[in-house]
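Box S2. Input/output pair 1.
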Amino acid sequence: MKVKQQVETQQKKIYINNYIITKSRDEWIEGRIIKIIEVPKPSEEKPDMNIKKYIIYSLRHNIICEEEIPEHSIHRSSIENYKKFKLFPLRAYVEDIHIPVDLFEILKNDYKSVKDKKMIVLPSKFPISKILKEFSKFIVANKPSISEDEILEVVKGFTWYFDKLINPFILYECEIEQYIQYFEKEKNVNLPSNCYGPEHLLRMIFAIQKFLVKDCMDYETQDVIFEYSVYLCDFLNIFLKKYFQEKNYG
């Protein structure tokens, strides 16, 4: 019995950036832990013990939830808990684009810069291939419902999407000449995902959510692709200051 209790306690340990399932505003949602608050436990027997409360970021609403979630209401984002709490795919709640506000601002500024002929200098210090590898490690560490094999297949799929669809879905017309010249000059760079960076990855996410998801043959595939695009957005949002810097280019 003691061993079982220890195992259960270890399984309950929750850390910053772990994905969890909880109830907020009378609905079950998936979120990510962004802050852990320890407060004294109101107990005469053990006054030195603390209890934990959590601040979470809601993936469905793209906002930080206002309330502090008590520890007993936090559940790991596992396959079992998905079924237990009957969570539906995010596309059941979202009709179109689901990109956090700060990232959407980057998209708009990126478009404005290209219109003003201020194109990004290649290559990026953080090419898409590198970002996606870091994304896969992050997901494996923080989301128990996704296996390493599964996320590697997803990363492979995103990389394929980018390399095959960069022109005409991702590049603006005025960038095509730069694309051609770069690959004529840099013979050792064989794929766009090895030189283009986070801004173009963000454009791909927009294209996936806006157009490509709807072209999939079955709803289950649509749900999976859309869901992973949301996790990728969340990852980029967490590391926004790391990836989206001018000094990362050229």
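Box S3. Input/output pair 2.
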Amino acid sequence: MDFARYLKEQEMRPKTIVGYCAVVNEYEQWRDTLPDSSEIITQLQILEYKSYLKTIRKNHPKTINRKLAAMRKWIQYLQAIGQVKNIITVKDEVLAPMEQLREPKYLDKNQIRNIRKAIEKERNDFLRNRDRCMTYLMLYLGLRQEEMLNLELLDIIRTPGKQKVIIRDGKGGFYSELGIESTELRGAIDLWIKERSKSRFAESRFCFVSQKSEHAGKRAAVMMIKRVSKTSGVEFTCHQLRHTFGKRIIDKTGNIKLAQELLRHKHTSSTEIYTMHRNEELSSVLRILDDII
């Protein structure tokens, strides 16, 4: 069994597998430059590699920790196949508090308004209705780009008294059911489903089809963002729509646990970043200190 197959059997995502394998290759190349190079991995080698990433490669602490996470998995793999029998500890680089909690970028009300207007200006009915539905699913339910693109038609339940979107394989393999409570989102879904029914790919199991394929992939999302950004004058990403959803939930309810559940975060620490104040808000407070001290 090779490392990539080991990771795949642990149901890790393809992008993560590629990244972890790249880290192992980097480690092995570094190890081969050592004067007393040995294929037997040791605790000392891990410490030296960590120092190399920090002082020579000058990697950011978060980058170092991602690479160390890959090394942990690799050591587990080597132990599983019997190549490593001793216990090796891989400790993360300690992050400063402000590095641990970095404010996400989100959109204000004016930017959202401009994005809405830009979508409605699209002359192509197919693109307008699909762009609206894609955008609103991320903005009103906090779907990640991949979750939105992988939605199947059967995952959108629109029966009386039961309107929800089912995420069958979210980040971390989580299953979630999210209620469709927003009238804006309901309208966007209805218009897209009606438009989709005219497509030659109407029988596709995927919710989002393209004009040339039965499954709209990442390129469709990228082109949607590019198209709407150009018309609206607002530079944004799919993940910023999700960040905006999270920020609005926190601002409205002040309930981190509720936001954590809606955002489908495994750890509360991932949700806490939405409680941070924007830099301009902090600056405005500092500017009035002369008047209050």
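Caption for Box S3: The chain has a mean pLDDT of 84. Residues 61-80 form the longest helix (20 residues).
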